[in-house]
């Protein structure tokens, strides 16, 4: 059984991802951040878990009525809300996470 992908693991991976020259088209949950590889190879993907953590981290929420994520597009939040918005939200979420950890 694979490990559960957590917000803490996501944050660590995001920091490494954002240190790259071109962070887009990479998946923080996939092996070597290769977007072509499934996060399910490394993590427990029951209930879309790594993708759920990633999408919720940037503020995408589930639309019960539509049965899909707001701004739904399968996979990366960059596909749902665009690269620059996903990166902006990621930086904001990382700052909020860091503030929370300091309290």
What does it look like?
It is a single chain. The chain is mostly helical. It has one domain. The protein has a two-stranded antiparallel sheet. The model has no long low-confidence stretch (mean pLDDT 86).
Blueprint (SSEs and pairs):
Blueprint: H1 7-18, H2 49-57, E1 62-63, E2 68-69, H3 77-81, H4 83-102
Antiparallel strand pairs: 1-2
Give a brief rundown of this model.
This protein is mainly alpha-helical and 103 residues long. It has 4 helices and 2 strands. A two-stranded antiparallel sheet has the order 1-2.
In terms of structural class, how would the helical and strand content be classed? mainly alpha
Shape: globular
Low-pLDDT runs of 5+ residues are none
> Roughly what percent helix?
40-55%
H and E order: HHEEHH
Count of strand segments:
2
How far apart are the termini? 34 Å
Radius of gyration: 13 Å
Strand order of the largest sheet: 1-2
Mean pLDDT, to the nearest integer, reads 86
Characteristic terms for this protein:
103 residues, mainly alpha, two-stranded antiparallel sheet, 4 helices, globular
């Amino acid at each position: 059984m694979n490990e559960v992908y957590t917000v803490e693991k996501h944050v660590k991976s995001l920091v490494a991802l954002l240190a790259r020259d071109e962070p887009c088209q990479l998946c923080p949950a996939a092996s070597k951040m290769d977007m072509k590889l499934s996060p399910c190879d490394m993590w427990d993907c029951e209930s879309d878990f790594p993708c759920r953590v990633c999408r919720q981290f940037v503020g995408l929420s589930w639309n019960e009525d539509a049965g899909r994520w707001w701004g739904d597009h399968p996979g990366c939040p960059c596909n749902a809300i665009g690269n620059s918005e996903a990166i902006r939200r990621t930086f904001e979420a990382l700052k909020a996470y860091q503030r929370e950890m300091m309290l």
